[in-house]
Design brief:
Strand order of the largest sheet: 1-2-4-3
Helix content: 25-40%
Structural class: alpha+beta
CATH class: Alpha Beta
Bound molecules: flavin mononucleotide
CATH architecture: 3-Layer(aba) Sandwich
Radius of gyration: 16 Å
CATH superfamily: NADH Oxidase
Number of domains: 1
Number of strands: 4
CATH topology: NADH Oxidase
Amino acid sequence: MKNIIFRRRSIRRFLNKPVEEEKLDRILRAGMQAPSAHNNQRWEFIVVTDKEKRIALSQFGMYTGMIEQAPVAIIILGKYDNEALNPWFAQDLGACTENILLQIVEEGLGGCWMGFYPNQDMVEKVNKYFGVPENVMPFGVVALGYSLDENHFIDRYDASKVHYNKY
Ligand SMILES: Cc1cc2nc3c(=O)[nH]c(=O)nc-3n(C[C@H](O)[C@H](O)[C@H](O)COP(=O)(O)O)c2cc1C
């Protein structure tokens, strides 16, 4: 069977079944295991399980509706103390978010990444609703849970996109 990198799919339909704490713990640990520029590890997380809060969150964007049905949503945030937002921040948090998505598959669950940053409208809605401080940037959110749809392999390899030694 293909490994989790190849089987991972965006899963948008979930069973009404809670996610075990041990699974959630391993998923968060996987996020914090990501590489980051200067090893700054400036990620933080808001784990949203409260139904009312998930409904609110699901209405913040045009394509975020699935959060209402997902038992858990993890908001991934970047913290920037005493400095401007580090320009490498998006790469750090992208790696963190992908680790989270992959661990979700490892746990037999499904998940979907939705971006907030750099959409100012969504960033402001998240900041206001969740009381996010000024020096913290909401990067995106991952909805997760036991899924109605299966993770499965789709072959995306395209040799024309690979350049050796020059473009
Ligand atoms: C930065 C980013 C933002 C995304 N935002 C959304 C979103 O708002 N809603 C959604 O349903 N999927 C979202 N996705 C998931 C993509 O649509 C999905 O990854 C893409 O269609 C490829 O499908 P796959 O994940 O199954 O390989 C996002 C993915 C990324 C990386």
